[in-house]
Amino acid sequence: RTLEPWGLLSRRGRWYVLGHDRDRAAPRMFRLSRVTGDVRRAGRSGAYTVPDGTNLRELARELEPPPRTGSATVRVRTGTGNALRRRATSVATSVGTDGHGWDRLDVPLAHVEELAQEVVAYGDDAVAVDPPDLVSAVVRRLHRLADAGAPP
Hints:
2 domains
């Protein structure tokens, strides 16, 4: 990608760069944590101008994909996951292979990454079950934490 950066913005705990994507000839927003490879400057300072009246927060709202509608299934150990429980549309109780009680919660899903962060924050008291992209997001976060040697 070739981007004329207009600015940086923190949104929902993540950093984004907004600007004009020369490849698509349109304004775009990119999450910085997803940028891979080397970033290099192309051109000289002042080679482009940010359009007058550009409001990064407003532009981010326009460019952000609409919230996802649907639900996710998360298993939580009995007596834990109170915030998830409050939002649950259904709860089913069972006993896990470890002999502990577990509840299977169906919770509304709007933002996969936000729910993944919440599941990870519960440590071994919560397990993402479905959808697959939520499970993948949780696994990615856990790998990053393990690589950094940090607790969830």
